[in-house]
Specification:
The complex is a heterodimer of chains A (413) and B (129).
Chain A (H helix, E strand, L loop, with lengths): L1 H38 L9 E3 L8 E3 L6 H5 L23 H11 L3 H5 L2 H5 L8 E6 L13 E7 L5 E2 L10 H10 L16 E6 L7 H14 L3 E4 L1 E3 L6 H12 L2 E5 L18 E8 L5 E3 L6 E4 L8 E4 L2 E4 L3 E10 L2 E8 L2 H18 L5 H11 L21 H7 L2
Parallel strand pairs in A: 3-6, 3-7, 4-6, 7-9, 9-10, 10-14
Antiparallel strand pairs in A: 1-2, 4-5, 10-11, 12-13, 15-16
Helix pairs in contact in A: 6-9, 10-11
Chain B lengths: L4 H6 L3 H8 L6 E8 L14 H28 L3 E2 L9 E7 H8 L4 E6 L3 E3 L7
Antiparallel strand pairs in B: 1-3, 1-4, 2-3
Classes of the chains: A alpha/beta (413), B alpha+beta (129).
Amino acid sequence: MRGRLRALRQRLEYVKERAAAQRPVQAKIFEGYQEAGSKRLPGRQQLAVSSIGTSALPVAALEVTRKTLPAIAEQPNVVAVLPNQKIHLVRPKATDYAELGQQEKKDGLTWGLKQLDIPKLWETTRGQHINVAVLDTGVHDEHQALKGRVKDFVIIDPLGRHITAKPTFDCDQHGTHVCGTITGSKTPDGVAIGVAPEANLFVAGVLIGNATLRTLMEGISWAVEQGADIISMSLGFDYYEPHFTKVFSILMEQFGILPVVAIGNENHGNSSSPGNAYSALSVGAVEKALRNQVTVAFFSSGASLVFPGAEPNALVTKPDVVAPGVQVFSCIPPEQRPEGTYEYTYMDGTSMATPHVAGVAALLMAAKPEAQVSDIISVLKDTAKHPEGARGRPDNRWGYGLIQPAETLKALG
Amino acid sequence: MHRDGDAHKAKISPEFAARLAHLKPQQKIRAMVMLGVDVPGKILGQRQARAERQAVIEQIHHSAAPALLEIDDILKHYNGKRLAAGVNALGAVPIETTAAGIHALAASERVAAILEDQPLSLLSMPSNA
């Protein structure tokens, strides 16, 4: 205790010494600024200057005009000039689902489908004959929105065994929600939730019990055998596994399958494996902003991995693209709540952005059956929209940008 | 079988190698072994009809057969075992063996990579608070 008091006294003395040393420097800046600044104003008006606190911090408040700003910036002891902008309390975000729900009902589709202009692609195709495999927590295929869409279902247990189950089930809500975003039809209120409502679903429950890398590989292998064209994965390992790139490369090169993988929800500067494999099409999340704009969600992961000498993949920048992943409305297994039974809900996450991209890929494959997987990936990236244009991409927030499905379809020729 | 230090390292991730280094000599670990299977007539990213897909899978199974014999010999030597009858459509087979067994497998020319059978989970959900 005595030691702590001594340390506090020493710090106080240090602060006083610093303040005393800084006061003459500050006075000189004030004098120099007032002299130089007033010369630039009509009638040599005086400019207000004031210290902040005891001057322990080398900061002061000054009145500045457009003409006098250079005069303060030119002072030799000034290192930076910051605008006195407003600050506000950081509050938990209150999400107004009621307003969004009303808008989606009015539009007849979710905000994500509207943002991606999906009805434009529906003029060409609704994803018929394209097989999308979803490796997740399962699916409740008796949901009205998924009627007729689930063509096969399997549970992969932790020992890698394939267990068939009828009726199908979801051990969570996640898998059913993801499936709804890919191929769901309309809610009773007339809101379209699925990007490719005529695509086929092949669902493997790989996240049931103590799931491992083997469970995922068995699920992928099952999807290959079922004839999958696209595999949607919103999941992650404990640690980075560089060799999973080989799995995705086999899918693309030997089987012509597109792996679409969530990049993770660990914020800027992080990424999840296997989504961060260079050979995966990895997806980050955007949310609605004011004036019909979108912005990258705070949680959406993004990072670059560096492998010196490993050309052409020495620098892997993730995510590849972004898609709607906040306030995503889709179907869930029936849930009893005090107010009644719920069969639809909103969810957030790159898990929700990923099925948007998988659904778009299904529409593109249906419309352009001759297009190679590598072409679809590169054109999706090329046509994506980044707020800073081509010079700003790829980065670790937007990747190449927000996908523009109609532009991609046009560019595929 | 041959030994090549760099090639060996390239088949096991640094994280997996570090975990192997901390295992006791008789302690076993599960892994997926990816075999270097040759698939002639690779179609490089073109979508396939069902029959074409099945043909590629059969080629992978066929091509893996001699490699599995070699894998079995190595596993037997290190008190390990295969955990599936054959390779899956990706040319991978689950195994269980000691750290020394993993290193011996990595030294085989027929092995392309060895991945630890590490946990898999749903991505953490974002918190809005």
